[in-house]
Structure prediction request, 517 residues.
Amino acid sequence: MLRQAIAEGRAPVLARAVAEGELHESVAAFPSVTPVCATALATGVRQDRHRIPSINWWDRSRERYVEYGSSFQASRRLGIARQLADVTYHLNGRHLAPEVETIYESLDDAGIRTGGTTFLITRGRHRHRLARDRVATKLSAALLRAPLMGPKELFFADLVATRETPCRSRFGHPGMRDQHAGCVSAHLVEHDLVDFLLLSLPDNDTHSHAHGPAAQLESIEAADREIARVAEAAGGLDRFFAEWALVVASDHSHTLVERRTDARAAFEPFGITGPGARKKRDRIAYCPANRAAMVYVLDPAERPTLLPQLVAAGRGAPGVELVVWRDEDGTGVISAGEDSAEGGEVRFRPATDDEAAAGRVPAPTAGADGAPIPDGPVADVPEEQVLRDRRGGTWVVSGQLGIVGGTVVDGVLRSTSHPDPLGRCWSALTCVNSGDVLLSAAAGAEFPDWGGIDHVGGGSHGSLRADDAVGILILHGLHDQDDPRGRPELAPDAWSIEDATPIIRRHFGVDTPKSPL
Prediction:
């Protein structure tokens, strides 16, 4: 839709950024929902390190659901006050791994003047008090008493404003958020208050949820106007593009929802715990996330017994294309669900250093039935093979790669329909806060949230499929433009939302924090 908006002349600022810079297709995390992907954008790592697993998940340590805002109805069902605290404080505090630096923290530590607008990830080095000068903010302040850690300049809905501006967000009301973000961003740029600015433009997501992916032409056009407002505050387009580097990133994509399918019913016999106190008969938690879902075993001692049963239930649930889990030996498994076009499963795990050092193992010459495989891409790997992916990962793999659209060419796994399937699934499976069983929806299907809300007729996301996951990454005016990622092991066209923050750090001459051992 971005390319179409540019072609129709509806996004002239983005058109210039693309013409003078680079446009890449960028792959989201799985589940491809906003909290997981926004955190990856803001930290440069996936959820195996940042620990935010979904938009709705079960906190094992506190035995309760965490809800970041699937819908107002879901928030009411699970508790509005708790949801507000989860989004405002806990996501950036208790939930987001403390050892993982956000882009704000990295740049704050380097003495760079940071600024941000309403975005799920706010954590920086500066303490901000919540506003109490309006009715809505007074009500919120009664629930949210502690200061918020953020960048040096922070405008978070109407809750936080580090300085007086004429801009109002109507408390983050959809349809007004882009205008508020553009207004405060223009103020910060005009008065030379920031070196780095995170300008969040979330109304495209809301508009697509309501009206469908094709309607994004209108919301992309509106977003482009807000970028133009900031450019004008910088002295006009020419000066803006001469003096500012620009990174434009989407956290995920959208696909049209054609049917509501409630996978929850398949798990009801196991006893799903509700929003209130856990009952003795409750054995699992169920966490829908648009076109994905997770199932948690409440008692770890029951996992060996319950896991195969939950997997079987997931395979038979309507609307499920893929069921993903880890066996007791730690091996990752992706299995075909009821709505998969192909049957079978894929088993995979990261290769050890010795296995990876051994180099490429030739693709098999015979299929599972012993028949010769013709020359060309291979989709079945009957015996364990060491394969590479296009993001630099090395895996020991066996099974029917066709269920994720996978083929092997010269020892490299590729998939157009389910990009980077092993890396994305492994990050989800090894996230400490993820469920025991993950579900990925089939094309056109969506799982209703805890409030019973779906987006039938509109757009949605969450699954492993490319329709949900392949977004955009525009780069303009960066230092080291020829190799902005600084990672030669990556295929030239294998881009991810993880790449945005390391690129920005490199631009400012700030080292990316090393992974903990």
